[in-house]
């Protein structure tokens, strides 16, 4: 497993290993959703969300990676049903441990399809 937490997260997601991805995060991590205004806190909600999106996303692939002082951004393409979706995972860390994941997606029609399907999974 790579020692870089951002590379490790990418590898875990690409191999669809939710457990490996969640282990990279601090217990008090924050997940910021593209469709819910309140943050999710902790690895329990993060695990549920990652499990859900991995079951919904089809043909998922990271397309670019950007690094900076404040964190790391991974751009991706995927599908939700018949809707093409583009997005980014914005990762932040502290002392080599991931502390925050923000996801942003477009277009609106794909985000809406994602919201509806995730709501059904998490209900």
TrEMBL record:
Domain SnoaL-like: where? 8-100
Question: Pfam families under this entry?
Answer: SnoaL_2
- What protein name applies here? Nuclear transport factor 2 family protein
In its UniProt entry, the species of origin is given as: Blastococcus carthaginiensis
